[in-house]
Amino acid sequence: MADPAFLPPPATPAMSRIAKRLIVLLGLLVVHGTVNADDYETFERKVRPLLVEHCYECHSAGAKTLHGGLRLDTAEGVRQGGDSGSAVVAGKPDESLLIETVRYDGDIQMPPDGKLDADDLATLTNWVRQGAAFPPSEQTEQARHGAIDFDEGRRFWSFQPVQRQPLPDVGGSDWPQTRLDSFVLAAMQRQGLAPTERADRVTLLRRLCFDLTGLPPTPAMVGDFVQDESPDAYRRLVERLLDSPQYGEKWGRWWLDMARYTDRTASWLYQTGQSHFYRDWVVDALNQDMPYDDFVRRQLATDLMPETEPSDLPALGFISLSPTYWKELKLPCEIIKVIVADEWEERVDAVSRTFLGLTVACARCHDHKFDPISTEDYYALAGIFASCRQVERPLVPEEEYEPVRRARERVAELEAEITKRKREKPLPTETIEKLTAEIQSIKASTPQYDMPMANALSEESLFVVRAGKTAQDGTKLEYRAQSRDLPAFIRGNPNRPGNIVPRRFLTVLAEQPEPYQNGSGRLELAESIVTEAAPLTARVIVNRIWLAHFGTGLVDTPSNFGTQGSRPSHPELLDDLAAHFIDSGWSLKQLHRQILLSATWQQSSSAAAESFQRDPENRWLSRMNQRRLTFEEWRDSMLMATDELTQVIGGPSIDLDANGNRRRTLYATVHRRDMSPTLMVHDFPDPTQHSPKRTPTITALQGLYALNGPLLLNQSQSLVTRLEREVPHDPAAQIDRLYWLLFSRPPDDRELRIGMQFLKPADNDSPATRLQQYAHALLVSNQALFVE
Amino acid sequence: MPNETNSTIDRRQLLGQLGGGMGMLGAAHLLASESSPNAGPHFPAKAKRVIHLFMNGGPYQGDLFDPKPLLEKYAGTRPPGADLLTERPTGGLLPSPFQFRRRGESGIPVSELLPKLSQHIDDICVLRSLHADNPNHGPALLQMNNGTITPTRPSMGAWFLYGLGSENANLPGYVVLCPGRPVRFSILWNSAFLPSEYQGTYINHSTIDPEKMLPHLRNVRWDRQTQREQLDLLRQLNAETTAAQASTHSAPHRDRSMLDARLESMETAFRMQFEGSEAFDLNRETKQTRAAYGDGHFANGCLLARRLAERGVRFVQVYYGNGQPWDTHSGHDGTVPKLCKNIDQPIAALIADLKSRGMLEDTLIVWGGEFGRTPTSENGNGRDHNHHGFSMWMAGGGVKGGMTYGETDDFGFRAMVDKMHVHDLHATILHLLGLDHERLTYRHAGRDFRLTDVHGRVVDEIIA
Fold this sequence. Notes:
The structure holds 2 protein chains of 2 kinds. By secondary structure, chain A is mainly α. Chain A is built from 31 helices and 8 strands.
């Protein structure tokens, strides 16, 4: 503990202003070097060792990480100070932050591992009092607060304009089917690789169905497609699948991974709002092929767009369903401010990574270490999210909602009254009954009292303020119907506000970013993303779609298009696709078509040994990548095989393991704080944050699920029921049927033989039981889990 | 790749994807032999595994390990100048009614509430100066487990597995035991952006039937023989495609790594059914051992922890109970003796048991809550949350026994001397496991993440 015997040096007695000024001047002179050698000697002998021992680990050129932007190993550093300002006022220890800090007097207390002892404190204090002499360094380094060179930054590949590229020369090959094939083939040729032949029709159909709908083809579809010999059979199939409502279900989930979708928001939020309206909005938007630029605008700011209906409001779920962190209002606002700042960071992170493929949140505490994104840029975006509030809004026009709103407000009042009365003694039973009856009557007499609400936004900004006079009075959250610009918090700490930064777009993506004027600026942000940043935005989304179809992206860091991200394997191709994407009116379905009709995508995943040897990671796409089904696809295909899948689009979620849940897995409840263990074990992304892509793992716990999971036992049982109905008492036919249902093809001779062997009557098991054991094994086989 | 970097493939991450839970022992071997900068321990480890006894709700340090005689003198008052504010209004200082006695050769004072545990005080390093950033259960639980109050980061157990892998391919490497559900639940053991195989496996051990504890451990329909036949069938079908491939010359090749890895993982699962049953089966312990640990969920948790540690499970957390049982906002003095009675014998038995098996030296036991409680009274007879200063302890695994580290102020409210932040605790535990908390990083969302963020100091003073 601090030595109570230590007292700060006696305060300087009152001095004349002139005298004070003299000392300041002297101080400056000293720091600038006109001192005698004795002062330096004293410094080197007594002061420097102290600084070396206690400070330099974090505040010198040798520091692993320079803390607080402060260097104490050069005269320049001492004079300039760090993030909190000047460290030393020569001659004035009581005004010097350094001294306040080592005395443990202020907010910052250094050194962190314990207060200096009294002698050391006195040494430092005297040094400052006597002018803080500091010998000039041999080489005084330039201050490190260097500004980002945005002009240089704009030259980075992903920020360049996109344009259609001339088709490369492929030596007259007739392999290319679409433009993209020429780019891919040219790259293969440069690597000495050749494309693999087209996959067989059944494989192709299965791959196509899973890719577009997340479901396997039915045996009937296989038959039709294999027999359809017209040249446009494949093209028609692509169209048919793109038009099917299951397309939106499959690709909706793809988007929801990025949007960190949850069906259950935090328990402490008062919400009747239903998340699934956002999920259903996404599914519907994708099914309608809503232009992607509009898709972006709607999710960020549909409420600010003139052509908006109340039914569009669920689009705002992208922001409104963002994770919220618990704010205990009994705590001092300094703590709550940090929590709120963390929430803003989460929004900036999700929005910048999802739409721009940039990690802007890295710039919260300091300029981005790698990308041309400044701390000011970060706060320019954070201010937008500080200026809107997560609220519920009705899906009907305001006039229609008005009576419901009034009724709900009244009910809330009455409920509060009941709560209050319940604390009284004796219990005023009669009054409580009367109040309860009134609530009932209001609910009954208000048409649509229980009308559903969307998770939406309002234009209100959040201020975290003290609830009373002192910090100990707790915190108040004030929502004000105005927008706010945030100060750039020093080192990301909201309790250390720096300069105010107007809300605006990222500097590197706009020549001269103008402050946003329209409310929170959400709509302007969306506009910036799809106009000023259109080349980047288009590259990012095109790459995401590519990745989903091929398993790897042209850029394999789909949410990081900055300098730390990958460079594109096929830069001209990505540019050409992105330019075409914008020209085609940002149509995602058009992009799917281009990819799916390409010879590249239609290659077989079984390829010549050379393809594997020369390019094990398949960067040059001389074959198709094998793909493991997601848990959703696996479960859904089982339900298809047993003919039990409920094909109803949209609506409230249902617990994955609920009895009789036969809905697509898209509708299984995602609970951010209480994730289904089954989903968690199967690589479902963490819904608290943007997920750029799934990370497939193979674990023994997945193995346990495959061997013993109730889903497998139920589904194998249902398969037996179906087989006994459709092909009773005929093991060979049952095997054949199973292969069709599960793998979209008949078994070959060996497979049939192995199957028959297994189905041979065993000691105790009935044929039906044996068949179920067999079906169970096939359900968890690699053939069922992988798409070739 | 799971990460967002363009650097060469990280071996650890690659194995995370492909090796999965199917043999991290082999994987660790491989890692070591390739001497990648991020593979296996960074330096020789003192502890191979960790058992974390989690007193969820927050125990009061002044009852147990941090006696403050001055409280008597100022009982019922709030001495002027004393900074004792917490989130809820509290009254005057409330002395602990429980007596302390100096115990062991070290003479460290321990509460009369822990008579059996105090016999082992010479093996225990009492940490009296812990402090955290937030006095609410949720954020504090998150900080203690995940290093940050934002629920988006991997748990420490996930970091341990990421850093070291598991020692037993047939069991999950990170097991969380709780007879119920702690607040915040699965986020406390999630893997967040690390691959999902590193997440903790939650087990509600309020029933101690192994088949009910481990999800899907048992097949309710098929016996072992049938399962073996099913797996053989799968092998045959898998092998057949290989044979078919090899038969043709120009034959196209397929990427078999994932296919084979998946079959292996099912074989592992098959074995886990039996090894798991065995590992989780307390009936295989002698009557003597069962009696030594005593009765109750917490005793069972401690004994399970030992069985799992013995079998190479890297990290076992035993939560005291459902919800937050140590959260004594009222009736504190009446509740705490009961809580202590439930933990005293089992923890003492755990230490003795590990010691007799020669495991204490490389098994780190960590005891504590998410924060402590106030020396002032709440509601007259309760105590409020206190994150400014609280006690934890460690034993075994390379920490010095019979010492105390750090001090709180005269009332036991705020850590004052040798303050130890939760980040420092994490840095120290990682260090004991042979991991440098500054080098155990994962590239995600554009930057390298650590369990300790940009903080943390290894508290060398407590390392043997």
